[in-house]
Design brief:
The chain is α+β, with helices and mostly antiparallel strands. It is built from two helices and six strands. Helices cover 13% and strands 29% of the residues.
Length: 78
């Protein structure tokens, strides 16, 4: 599995998992990689297995949702 390499800055939107040490672009993506019930065996899933992709940035790599292939976000805006 590829690993994220980005360094966190104070007041960043990024979320770093204290268990697997992977970095996610948002809190939503961080929560997406957690599996199991709270207080009962919650664990980390492979980010690729939950649909996240590793994106390279100028500061390093981070796990994100893949871009929409049809640009549906832009086609629905008026």
């Amino acid at each position: 599995m590829p690993r994220s390499t980005i360094k966190l800055k104070l007041n960043s939107r990024l979320s770093k998992c204290p268990l697997c040490l992977e970095t996610f672009s948002t809190e939503h993506n961080f929560n997406k990689h957690k599996v199991g019930e709270y207080n009962n065996g919650r664990a980390c899933a492979n980010p690729e297995d939950v649909g996240l992709v590793l994106i390279e940035t100028t500061r390093g790599s981070v796990w994100k949702m893949p871009p929409a292939e049809d640009n549906s976000f832009y086609s629905t805006r008026k």
